[in-house]
TrEMBL record:
CDD domains: 2-Hacid_dh_8 (cd12167). This is Hydroxyacid dehydrogenase. It comes from Nonomuraea insulae. Keywords: NAD, Oxidoreductase. Residues 147-297 form the D-isomer specific 2-hydroxyacid dehydrogenase NAD-binding domain. Pfam families: 2-Hacid_dh_C. The lineage of its organism: Bacteria, Bacillati, Actinomycetota, Actinomycetes, Streptosporangiales. The keyword Oxidoreductase applies. The keyword NAD applies.
Length: 337
């Protein structure tokens, strides 16, 4: 067998087995020389030093330590970092790019379950399922049980506002083509022509809020996206609107959202919050028209395998000189998640 490049795992043990089940490890080991029994969550100590000294490819994931100048100095042969999880940028010192390392992330694969979750919540949110189910459960004998009072609900011919044609946002846009809805998109990095190609009308944030029966947030957490849904914009939303946030809690002003939802004017589905987690007893956790889930939209359980499949395929592309699908370039860092 020809010499295989040496690779090293840096991924938390809790995620390892799900991301790299045995059959994927077998496939990976046909490409690289890697010890499947060793994964590092710290690069301190002699075992990590010995592994880094030989490593040509680092297969990272959740729990990977930050890759800084010290790590690079200990890894003189390192050529590529393949991240088998979502966002990688917080783990990268810019020196990684100065050294010419090829960086790839499986964010594309992690986006799939987030888009699926979003579509489910759009359908349920449009039907006001959460508030209506709560009223149904709380009804005492003899009171109307709400099963015919669906006025103003449902996805049919309503307007969906998508904030961010990110990897998740684009998958949501693609899935929305299967529904008879009008789609608005806000994204400063997308032209009107590209938005039309994605099946959406490009609009400003205020316009999106004024017209969106359902608004779904998919932009990255950046200084300029903090509180992009603030009190003023939440007030622009039509009565009965539903806000879905699977992106990051900081994109919405939590206090303003709490006030708007508590008034009953709008509803929300929040997979991410600010702060996260919300403190016990927070009003958002008790409102019948708000569903808060514990940051579970991204890959979990069976979905983890998709990250490993992406990473193994990416290693194959890297070794054969093919373009990487998840390549992260330094100039993208200011506007990606
Ligand atoms: N809930 C979860 O489990 C989960 C999982 C994965 C990702 N996320 C979050 O989902 C969001 C999308 O992730 P991704 O990997 O698809 O992001 P991404 O890196 O693909 O997003 C980058 C894109 O966002 C768009 N964008 C940048 N600035 C914007 C702005 N000011 N307004 C609107 N759009 C803007 C641009 O099109 C840019 O190319 C992020 O906030 C990410 O943290 C959450």
């Amino acid at each position: 067998m020809p010499r295989r490049p040496v690779a090293v795992f840096a991924i938390a043990p809790w995620a390892f087995g799900g991301v790299f089940p045995v059959d994927l490890l077998t496939r990976l080991r046909q490409l690289v020389d890697i010890d499947p029994a060793t994964t590092f969550t710290s690069f301190d100590g002699p075992a990590a030093a010995a592994a880094l000294a030989e490593a040509e490819i680092l297969l990272s994931g959740w729990g990977c330590p930050r890759i800084d100048a010290g790590v690079l100095a200990a890894a003189p042969r390192l050529r590529a970092l393949v991240h088998a999880a979502g966002t990688v940028k917080a783990r990268l010192d810019p020196v990684v790019f100065d050294r010419g390392l090829v960086v790839s992330s499986a964010a594309e694969a992690n986006a799939v379950p987030v888009a699926d979750y979003t579509i489910a919540m759009l359908v349920l949110g449009a039907k006001q399922v959460f508030g209506r189910a709560a009223r149904y459960a709380a009804a005492v004998e003899g009171t109307p049980r709400d099963w015919l009072s669906g006025e103003g609900t449902g996805l049919h011919h309503c307007t969906v506002g998508v904030i961010g044609a990110s990897r998740v946002g684009r998958l949501v846009l693609r899935r929305l083509r299967g529904f008879d809805v009008e789609v608005l998109l806000h994204d400063p990095y997308v032209s009107a022509a590209e938005a039309a190609h994605l099946g959406a009308e490009l609009v400003g944030m205020d316009d999106l809020c004024r017209r969106g029966d359902l608004v779904t947030v998919h932009a990255p957490a950046l200084p300029e996206t903090r509180h992009m849904l603030d009190a003023r914009r939440l007030d622009l939303l039509p009565e009965g609107a539903v806000v879905i946030n699977t992106a990051r809690g900081s994109l919405i002003d939590t206090e303003a959202l709490t006030r708007s939802c508590a008034s009953g004017r709008i509803s929300a589905v929040l997979d991410v919050t600010d702060p996260e987690p919300l403190p016990p007893g927070h009003p958002l956790l008790a409102l019948p028209n708000v569903l808060v889930t514990p940051h579970l939209a991204g890959a979990q359980g069976r979905e983890l395998r998709r990250l490993g499949e992406f990473a193994v395929a990416e290693v194959g592309r890297f070794l054969s000189g093919a373009p990487l699908v998840g390549r992260v370039e330094p100039e993208q860092l200011p506007y990606i998640a």
